[in-house]
Design a protein that fits this description.
Helix content: 40-55%
Radius of gyration: 21 Å
Number of domains: 2
Order of helices and strands: HHEHEHEHHEEHEHEHEHEHEHHHEEEEEE
Structural class: alpha/beta
CATH class of the largest domain: Alpha Beta
Distance between the termini: 14 Å
Strand content: 15-25%
Length: 393
């Protein structure tokens, strides 16, 4: 069983680690500030998943600066609002690098946007640490080459889809799955691809696949078509919780009952209030359950400060920030400045660095977290409840 320090203890320990292992005041005198670019969707204040991440980032940066910075170097966040448009991520990255001259970038949250940043990061030699971007092309090219300046804080879509299929077949005893999935961006299609591969390998069958476009409001034709295939579970693969809410509510109005399954795009607290009782008894993938007692202290302070409930996106954003803190400290010690190659080397070789979600080790062959655990979370009594935790073999 994995043991975790409480979050505030982890933050304190990281600060001590950086101070003890990386302290070098003479180097720090040569650097005025760390310019930290931040790519995130900030256009919709009602989207708690993105806003809690930004607020958590700002809180942590204030703490860093209040303690004198990283080896005396203060941190300045330069945000860029991607407005939830994938093409804006590339535009934002170029602006942050070419006009704002940032030293490193955290974000984005989406795989579609992050997948296009590898060439830009490599050409400019600016490390980018994605937060919840779980697509396979975030850190690697189609032919399997590592994108040297791209890293991520979360697990991959191929991993989570495989786990969801395994749980559906082995734990729930399902044999006939159906899919309703967003067909105009990579995330849902990747979930479908790897779920189907694992589910059929185990002996199951995907009996229906209904794609829909972004902004769809009427899911009844899709649900009617799916119901004709008589599946024993329905995966709603989307990163938009409005899609999930509309689907389950319209299914109920049609008198249809399904065992619902979802990827981690469901893991947004707003979904519980939006979908209500229609999601009771469903299961989803999540890196972390926000109801986990080990997050209680952090969540309480966050709620008191911002009157918002914290989301998984905030945890991963802080993981990315703490990884960058470590890399900056290593660079200052080694070169006396924010040297991009030194920072990249430090990120690639991170091992057991304390972060919000536990301890972070980056696999140098993938630039993904090594041995990330993943949870199956149930919706029970209108709350998240972890029912099973997987670890890679």
């Amino acid at each position: 069983m994995v043991r975790f320090l409480p979050i505030r203890k982890q933050v304190q320990f990281l600060s001590l680690l950086l101070a003890a292992a990386l302290a070098n005041p003479m180097h720090a005198q040569t650097v005025e500030e760390l310019k930290l670019g931040y790519l995130c969707n900030l256009c919709d204040p009602s989207n708690n998943f993105t806003w809690t991440a930004k607020l958590a980032l700002d809180d942590r940066v204030k703490e860093i600066n209040a303690k004198g910075g990283i080896q005396g170097v203060k941190v300045r966040v330069i945000p860029y609002d991607t407005k939830d448009v994938s093409s804006n991520v590339v535009v934002g990255a170029r602006k942050l690098i070419e006009q704002d001259h940032v030293d490193c970038i955290i974000g984005p949250q989406s795989s579609a946007g992050a997948s296009g940043l590898g060439t830009i990061a490599e050409a400019a030699k600016v490390p980018i640490f994605a937060t919840t971007a779980s697509g396979p092309l975030v850190t690697q090219t189609k032919d399997g080459r590592i994108k040297p300046y791209m890293f991520r804080a979360c697990y991959t879509d191929s991993y989570q889809a495989t786990i969801l299929a395994d749980f559906a077949f082995k734990d729930l005893g399902k044999r006939k799955a159906a899919f309703i999935f967003g067909n105009d961006y990579p995330y849902p299609a990747t979930i479908l691809k790897y779920f189907e591969a694992e589910f059929t390998k185990l002996g199951g069958q995907v009996v229906a696949k209904e794609g829909f476009s972004y902004g769809t409001e009427d899911f009844k034709p899709k649900l009617s078509s799916v119901a004709k295939a008589e599946p024993d579970c329905l995966v709603i693969a989307t990163g938009e919780v409005k899609d999930v809410s509309r689907s389950v509510q319209q299914a109920e109005s049609m008198g249809l009952k399904f065992q619902y399954l979802g990827p981690d795009g469901w893991a947004v607290n707003d979904l519980l209030s939006m979908a209500g009782k229609q999601l009771e008894g469903s299961y989803l993938i999540s890196g972390f359950n926000t109801e986990d007692p080990r997050f209680a202290d952090f969540n309480a302070h966050f709620k008191q400060a911002h009157n918002l409930k914290c989301d998984v996106g905030a945890y991963y954003t802080l993981d990315a920030l703490m990884a960058m803190e470590f890399a900056v400290g290593a660079s200052l010690k080694k070169t006396g400045k924010m040297d991009p190659m030194a920072m990249r080397e430090a990120l690639e070789t991170i091992k057991d660095v304390p972060v919000v979600t536990g301890r972070l080790t980056i696999d140098p062959t993938t630039h993904d977290p090594y041995d990330p655990h993943i949870n199956i979370v149930a919706v029970k009594d209108g709350k998240w409840q972890t029912v099973k935790t997987y670890h890679p073999e």
